[in-house]
């Protein structure tokens, strides 16, 4: 189901998605209240949801929609706090208009239906920024309540990134390591950073070597400061 207050956007998305294999738009909505009603009536496999709509907006409707179907935010609203709030309220992905192609939109739809998070660069940057903000708060000895609110239940379990201080990683490697720590796979990281999966693998190999790790779990533990740096360098296979 497509929920957007702009009829041109709705028509364009419907035409685009209906023309793809195994994708069919079963309903449209112009605001959050109608999105809720249409979702209850049609039980779609996915809701594409705008943020800013008259009456009930997308963020307000999210808690009612998430128990009914996975929700993929599809919006012009790229503010960090909006992204974080959407993810906190259960959105399975967040796409900002202008940051994805038609093929990437279809990939995002399939990912979120399958339970895989999908973020375009602005949304990924908001998640990374929150993790880094937690790191700064922890490093400065601030109480937990003073740190920024986490963006998803999964991120609420991620401890501040102590390992980033004095990190041997480049800025791009640090960005990718942050995304690894949130649980994204190579395909999702490639989509978020707009690079190829092969480039992601190359970055991960260098990250493993610099952090002296052999697995993602070990790299994440060291990156979050929860494991000693004792293993020899290794390369990721595949």
Automatic annotation (TrEMBL):
Supply the InterPro entries for this chain: CheY-like_superfamily (IPR011006), NreC/VraR/RcsB-like_REC (IPR058245), Sig_transdc_resp-reg_C-effctor (IPR016032), Sig_transdc_resp-reg_receiver (IPR001789), Tscrpt_reg_LuxR_C (IPR000792), WalR-like (IPR039420)
* SUPFAM superfamilies attached to this UniProt entry: C-terminal effector domain of the bipartite response regulators, CheY-like
UniProt KW Protein biosynthesis keyword = no
In the record, which positions carry 4-aspartylphosphate? 50
Do the record's keywords include Protein transport?
Answer: no
Q: Give this protein's Gene Ontology molecular function annotations.
A: DNA binding
| Limits of the Response regulatory domain | 1-112
Task: Please indicate which superkingdom the organism of origin belongs to.
Answer: Bacteria
What's a GO biological-process term for it?
phosphorelay signal transduction system
Q: Which residues form the HTH luxR-type domain?
A: 162-227
User: Which Pfam families does the record match to this protein?
Assistant: GerE, Response_reg
Alphabetically list the UniProt keywords.
Answer: DNA-binding, Phosphoprotein
- Identify this protein by name: Response regulator transcription factor
Source species: Streptomyces lasalocidi
